[in-house]
Amino acid sequence: MREYEVKRSVLAFAFGRLVLLTVLAVVGVLFVEPRIFFVAVLLAVAWIWFQALKSPVKVRVRDDGAIELCGPIRRIVARPDEIDQIVQVGRRYWLHLRSGWLSLHGYGADLQHIISYLTAANPALEVKVFRWGQEKG
């Protein structure tokens, strides 16, 4: 079994930014008028927290060929043939599984190992790269 983890610096920056946004939104709700704006911001920050906690921080390539995508509140096990498409947008990769889209970010060079494993295990996998509004395949 091979295991890849998100870099700690990426996690610290992402969650530090979310904590700061949360504190600012709560202070806005409590002390600033009109409060409805900050309530909307707080709801948006809550949604961002939910998405961040679902994002995988660890990817395991199991001996049976399946991959485990483990996040703080969600774990997905998928075979390479269940992944239809990989889209790269900047440094972030999006995997299209049968159950929906999943974002991978912060793995550094290990991400190339994951992508090469998936493309070798599933020759029908479509890999797309988007940069500055243009698609390169």
List keywords for this structure.
137 residues; alpha+beta; PH-domain like; five-stranded mixed β-sheet; 9 strands
Task: Please describe what this structure looks like.
Strands 7-6-5-8-9 form a five-stranded mixed β-sheet, with helices on one face. The chain has a four-stranded antiparallel β-sheet with strand order 1-2-3-4, covered by helices on one side. The chain is elongated, with a radius of gyration of 18 Å. Helix 1 runs antiparallel to helix 2. Strand 8 (126-131) and strand 9 (134-136) form a beta hairpin. It is 41% helix and 31% strand. The chain has helices spanning 8-31, 35-54, 110-121; strands spanning 2-5, 58-61, 67-70, 75-78, 83-89, 92-97, 100-104, 126-131, 134-136. The protein is built from three helices and nine strands, in the order E-H-H-E-E-E-E-E-E-H-E-E. It has 137 residues and is an alpha+beta fold. The model has no long low-confidence stretch (mean pLDDT 90). The chain has a single domain, classed as PH-domain like (Roll), CATH 2.30.29.30. The two termini are 30 Å apart.
Q: How would you characterize the largest beta sheet? A: 5 strands, mixed
CATH homologous superfamily (4th level) name: Pleckstrin-homology domain (PH domain)/Phosphotyrosine-binding domain (PTB)
Query: In CATH, what is the class?
Result: Mainly Beta
Question: If you consult CATH, what is the topology?
Answer: PH-domain like
Structural class call reads: alpha+beta
CATH architecture: Roll
Low-confidence stretches: none
The rounded Rg comes to: 18 Å
The total tally of domains equals 1
Helix content: 40-55%
